[in-house]
Amino acid sequence: MPDTKANILLLGCGAVGTLAAVTLEKSERATITAVLRSNFTAVGQKGFTIDSIDHGSLTGWRPSHIERSVQDAMTHGPFQFIVIALKNLPDIYSIPDLIAPAITRFTTIVLIQNGIGIEQPFVDSFPDSTILSGVSMIGARELSSGVIRHDNPDILHLGPIYNTTTTRKTEDELAASFASLYRAGGASCLLTNDITCMRWKKLVWNASFNSVCAITGLDSGAIMDAGGVETIIRPVMDEIVTIATASGCTLPDGIQQRTIDSMPREINFRPSMLVDVDRGNPIEVEAIVGNPLRIAQELGCEVPLLRMIYECLKLIQWRIVRDKSLAVS
Amino acid sequence: MPDTKANILLLGCGAVGTLAAVTLEKSERATITAVLRSNFTAVGQKGFTIDSIDHGSLTGWRPSHIERSVQDAMTHGPFQFIVIALKNLPDIYSIPDLIAPAITRFTTIVLIQNGIGIEQPFVDSFPDSTILSGVSMIGARELSSGVIRHDNPDILHLGPIYNTTTTRKTEDELAASFASLYRAGGASCLLTNDITCMRWKKLVWNASFNSVCAITGLDSGAIMDAGGVETIIRPVMDEIVTIATASGCTLPDGIQQRTIDSMPREINFRPSMLVDVDRGNPIEVEAIVGNPLRIAQELGCEVPLLRMIYECLKLIQWRIVRDKSLAVS
């Protein structure tokens, strides 16, 4: 291991990003410069208040540096890793544009975000960079600005998106290096060479429950009580499995039922897009529904339910964006 | 014409029902006993305040009798006509059960309600009654309890549902008789012998715009601005036309575009189901979407978009009913 600490830029300090920051700092082998948006003022004044199953109770916690923008963060660079835990909103802003100033030939990009097909914009924009793609299985949420509740352990699945300009060996080493930091900080990081398949697996849940909750205003338990599992959830899951299979990812048999069973009826879980709709914040419709739909089209899969869900969510997104701009103007 | 006035029981004094009551009383050939629900107290105290394109400004207007229930209304019977302008919510309450006490062998039932296939429960429950089915093209809404704004003329399309126990001649005469009262009161009533086709025509609008507005929280103009006409509205209209055609009703060529053109972009119209969702009131999902879907199934039509819309609206209905019962308990 290197003697000096890894210098890491981290974007997005919601629940997932903040807990990644805590883990990486706790390794004592990394220095985090975090770029905050909505919670910059709150965290600047009082730090984070974190109640974490992995890290215990933290009050007034801050990463090494906090900044308002990538430009401001540059004074702490250059960075070996840029960890992106921002909401994935390609229809609202371009994350590649955002991080471009901080990218060097030696920067590795680590995506900890929802959805499928989310790596391509980074591959296209930064052909010399290694892209590590991460799927987080954490259970955590931001209760209010800078206040984070972490109920289920942080398990990060991580794997390189192998590109043509770097050797596989280098990419695997960089993945191992990041995973080692993560583990040294007290969380799990499981390396895989097929992260896309892991993304499809998580999408079985996200494209169905997350979408339908956002459209109907119901939490996961209420969807079950209302009989929505058989009428919508499972049929949408079937479509996701169809696309995944067509794209070459064989999901485990019965993943639909296993995914349903993973949500006990008594848990009234409010998925991220439902929370966003309730708060009037943009939803991750392109990463979670738009991208799988486009992959389905390329592969010639018929997915009428997913298409309908997508078109409804896009109209809801349009309303959210309009209302936000009205609130600002 | 008879010398005595027609004795009419009218259920549901929202905008459509109240204006029907005004028209029928204004004919001076009918006595209306209206059963009010949510606005009984307001109307009992101050009467209706009506601003009508057909009838001018009316303050403190009341029909001959107002009552809280069909049972209470019975003292004013027997009734030749029972006019039903209630919201059509078969998943919430049974209108046949509600009116059963007031039905005699000589009662004619007049339905002024949205949707398709809504007559069958009345045919089943009251085989001796003539059923007149009405499609209202009125533009009117209740601004607050008992306060009604009527912007577009009342045009009622009316036709009998021919059954086996009454002669067509009698049914046609009863339709003509009711239409004559309506016209004498200063509104339009157009007789047709294919009211079902008229229902499909109106459904091209209702199943698409009304549904999608309710799901997305957007008004008709916003749906257009957001590009929703091509992504959802027209595809859903196509499915309705497919079902109508399969059921033997030939809609005019290009009815989809004509229906879209009938909603100028600058009109930000909030359809009934969107208003209901906003107010936390049950929506007419079965009449507007459930029934056409069931007809599609019987006829073997593939209508995946309509099915998805139905399942989403049913979950939204479940939430509305749950929240209402929580508010009451």
Low-confidence stretches of chain A: none
Q: Percent range for helical residues of chain A?
A: 40-55%
Category by helix and strand content of chain A: alpha/beta
Determine and state the CATH class of the largest domain in chain A: Alpha Beta
* Helix and strand run of chain A: EHEHEEEHEHEHEEEEHEHHHHHHH
Main beta sheet of chain A: strand number and arrangement? 8 strands, mixed
Number of strands of chain A: 12
Strand ordering within the main sheet of chain A: 5-2-1-6-7-8-11-12
Count of spatially separate domains of chain A = 2
Q: What count of helical segments of chain A does DSSP give?
A: 13
Q: What does the oligomeric state look like here?
A: homodimer
Largest interface: A-B, 25 and 25 residues
Strand content of chain A: 15-25%
Distance between the termini of chain A: 52 Å
CATH 2nd-level architecture of the largest domain in chain A:
3-Layer(aba) Sandwich
In CATH, the homologous superfamily of the largest domain in chain A goes by the name NAD(P)-binding Rossmann-like Domain
Rounded average pLDDT of chain A = 94
Radius of gyration of chain A (Å): 19 Å
- CATH topological fold name of the largest domain in chain A: Rossmann fold
Envelope shape of chain A: globular
